[in-house]
Amino acid sequence: MKGSALYSIFSLKCPRCHQGKLFDTSVFDYAHPLSMGSTCTVCHQKYELEPGFYWGAMFVSYGVSAFMMFGLIALFFFGLNTSLEAAFGWTIAIIVILFVYILRLSRSIWIHLFVKYNKNWQHE
Ligand SMILES: [Zn+2]
What pTM value is reported for the model? Predict the structure, then answer.
């Protein structure tokens, strides 16, 4: 749903205005996986709150990847009745394809923890 924090996190939008994009290249641009603007193009929120701000996002990405891996393996193995080897194979393939998105999602989750939505951003 537009305007909700979850929508903003998963669509990689600015945490403050939910309109600007956090990243300025496509999710499938593997050459520039973490190319972020320094500020939001819509509300001018700073994206790098302090030097090394996204260091902590690494831990989020471990959590997100592990969560997704277990979820996908369970889905293939129990939901689709594949062999365990096939479940691992498909899961790794999907994680590799979604790798850039997972990295970006982790940064998105991270900045949303620190910057809250402000629907009156135009007036501040
Ligand atoms: Zn913004």
Answer: 0.87
From the CA of 50, how far away is ligand 1's center (Å)?
17
- From the CA of 122, how far away is ligand 1's center (Å)? 10
DSSP sequence for 43-76: T--BS--STTGGGGHHHHHHHHHHHHHHHHHHII
The tally of domains found in the chain comes to 1
Query: φ and ψ at 46, to 5 degrees?
Result: -70, 140
Q: List the shell of residues around ion ligand 1, using CB closer than 5 Å.
A: 14, 16-17, 20, 40, 42-43, 45
Distance (Å) from CA 73 to ligand 1 centroid: 36
Domain that holds residue 30: 5-123
pLDDT tens-digit map of 14-70: 999 999 999 988 877 778 888 898 999 999 999 999 999 999 999 999 999 999 999
